[in-house]
């Protein structure tokens, strides 16, 4: 298909997409959560009531409201309600440990935290030093009526599931009670295009979490760019599978913001589960699947084994890690549709490049720039000097989707945002004569596992406090369909004879996200260092690759 070189970004807040969808497609199903459906008209009403509830808690324009929830209707309602008040959404990973989540809440100065009730009590305790209030969300309220009834049965397995979904009894007013008691009709705030809409934390090059500031214009621009790329519109009744988490920029954009712009039905799943996805496919066949390669590979294999028809999917967008050619071929054979790669980062809202949705697509390549996106490849040591086709260099991008900077971190912002609006991505690429970009190296030592980014220094900082460990280097090792596995290479403290993986995993406890917890531990006599004494992670990885499998 022909994609325009540029797009016109309307001067409107992101919430205009929901307003239009409710006005023009009020009877269309907006959300399907395990069979429980919500139309766009109903969603608009829920958002109105939620905005009133948040206003009663003192939320005002510009205030930050953190959302720490898996994908569920409550997450969607809270997201739009915060924005409708002119406030700022702060997306937090609900699997973060209480202390780590509390640190981020303090960093952004969130006034309210809407949190999964399973973690709300621990988070409340960790937030004693802040003024933030925690609103717990009982996820059982989002389930279909039949499933809610089943959870009441005196069956041990169901009781355990009910406890996991509900958590401990809340000490503050729960989310659904707030909504029930709230009024309606709180005036919406028409945010200006350049007003801050969203904060999403990323580790950057150092691993220290930084909040990426995305404006309404950034997010609207990426929605418009995506629509120009795919050719999708509200007239087509798309069914988007929301298997990517909303706290990740990839999932937030394609499965929430963009999906609402095209008035799609979003099939929500609280986590990726092959069986749940295939069950949903039988109930409500999907047309559009944003995913990471391991998801595509597992779904293709399982569908073939179980005889599930995937031919309703016309487009799959793969991102966060390289798309293997065999995965692409298997998906397209199973669906008859197309799978293309997209490239970006949280700082680009997140999509900046993509492979064309036609025969020119190239699995394994990042693709070409999105409409209204400029690109250049420069000498990594001289970010103003461009290199020629076929030469390795650092990718830089500029466009309306490029972020405004890091929250309250002007020095880190200046290090990546250059004059002319150019963003240093930190990724080393090669551009061929046709303009296709291929990733050849990562200048940032970030581990990508299952589509999530793990910053080695964060894991290392926690492990260095372990009495049994003298030194540690955390690296990514080949991990099959996960992409990479997190591996900790350690030098043991004096008089310590051994250290097993279970002990390490117990030590990190809930201080790290689950995907960041090491999957292997390798004991070494010493770690390779540079002339100035810096541990060389790349040399550690090369040593492990050359040695016995880990």
UniProtKB/TrEMBL annotation:
EC number: 6.2.1.3
AMP-binding enzyme C-terminal domain residues: 459-534
SUPFAM superfamilies associated with the record: Acetyl-CoA synthetase-like
GO molecular function: long-chain fatty acid-CoA ligase activity; medium-chain fatty acid-CoA ligase activity
Keywords, in A-Z order: Ligase
UniProt cross-references to PROSITE patterns, sorted A to Z: AMP_BINDING
Source taxon at top rank: Bacteria
AMP-dependent synthetase/ligase domain residues: 18-407
Keyword Ligase recorded: yes
Class of enzymatic activity (EC top level): ligase
InterPro entries cross-referenced by the UniProt entry: AMP-bd_C, AMP-bd_C_sf, AMP-binding_CS, AMP-dep_synth/lig_dom, ANL_N_sf
Family: Belongs to the ATP-dependent AMP-binding enzyme family.
Protein name: Long-chain fatty acid--CoA ligase
């Amino acid at each position: 298909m022909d994609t325009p070189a540029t797009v016109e970004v309307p001067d409107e807040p992101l919430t205009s997409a929901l307003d239009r969808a409710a006005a023009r497609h009020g009877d269309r199903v907006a959300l399907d959560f395990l069979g429980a459906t919500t139309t766009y008209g109903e969603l608009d009403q829920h958002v109105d009531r939620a905005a009133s509830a948040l206003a009663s808690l003192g939320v005002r324009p510009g205030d930050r409201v953190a959302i720490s929830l898996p994908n569920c209707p409550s997450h969607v309602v809270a997201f739009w309600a915060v924005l409708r008040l002119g406030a700022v959404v702060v997306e937090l990973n609900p699997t973060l440990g209480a202390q780590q989540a509390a640190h981020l809440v303090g960093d952004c100065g969130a006034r309210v935290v809407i949190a999964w009730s399973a973690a709300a009590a621990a988070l409340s305790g960790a937030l004693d030093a802040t003024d933030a209030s925690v609103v717990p969300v009982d996820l059982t309220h989002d389930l279909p009526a039949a499933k809610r009834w089943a959870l009441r049965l005196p069956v041990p397995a169901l009781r355990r599931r009910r406890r996991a979904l509900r958590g401990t009894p809340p000490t503050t007013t729960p989310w659904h009670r707030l909504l029930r008691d709230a009024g309606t009709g709180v005036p919406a705030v028409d945010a200006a295009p350049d007003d801050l809409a969203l904060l999403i934390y990323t580790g950057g090059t150092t691993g220290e979490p930084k909040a990426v500031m995305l404006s309404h214009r950034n997010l609207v621009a990426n929605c418009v760019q995506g629509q120009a790329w795919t050719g999708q519109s509200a007239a087509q009744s798309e069914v988007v599978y929301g298997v990517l988490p909303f706290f990740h920029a990839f999932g937030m954009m394609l499965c929430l913001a963009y999906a609402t712009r095209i008035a799609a039905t979003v099939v929500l799943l609280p986590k990726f589960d092959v069986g749940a996805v295939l069950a949903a496919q039988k109930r409500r066949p999907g047309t559009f699947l944003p995913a990471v390669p391991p998801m595509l590979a597992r779904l293709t294999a399982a569908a073939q084994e179980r005889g599930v028809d995937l031919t309703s999917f016309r487009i799959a967008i793969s991102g966060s890690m390289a798309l293997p050619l065999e995965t692409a071929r298997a998906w397209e054979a199973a669906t008859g549709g197309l799978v293309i790669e997209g490239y970006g980062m949280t700082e680009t809202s997140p999509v900046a490049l993509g492979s064309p949705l036609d025969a020119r697509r190239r699995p394994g390549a990042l693709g070409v720039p999105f409409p209204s996106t400029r690109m250049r490849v420069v000498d990594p040591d001289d970010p103003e000097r461009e290199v020629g086709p076929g030469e390795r260099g650092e990718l830089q991008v500029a466009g309306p989707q490029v972020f405004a900077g890091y929250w309250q971190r002007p020095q880190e912002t200046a290090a990546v945002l250059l004059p002319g609006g150019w963003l240093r991505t930190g990724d080393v690429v090669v551009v061929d004569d046709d303009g296709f970009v291929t990733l050849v190296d990562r200048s940032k030592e970030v581990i990508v596992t299952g589509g999530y980014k793990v910053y080695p220094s964060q894991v290392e900082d926690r492990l260095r406090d372990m009495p049994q460990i003298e030194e540690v280097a955390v690296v990514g090792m080949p991990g099959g369909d996960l992409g990479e596995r997190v591996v900790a290479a350690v030098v043991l403290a004096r008089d310590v004879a051994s250290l097993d993986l279970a002990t390490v995993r117990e030590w990190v406890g809930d201080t790290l996200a689950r995907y960041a917890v090491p999957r292997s531990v390798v004991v070494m006599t010493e770690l390779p260092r540079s002339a100035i004494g810096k541990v060389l992670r790349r040399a550690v990885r090369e040593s492990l690759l050359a040695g016995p499998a880990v």
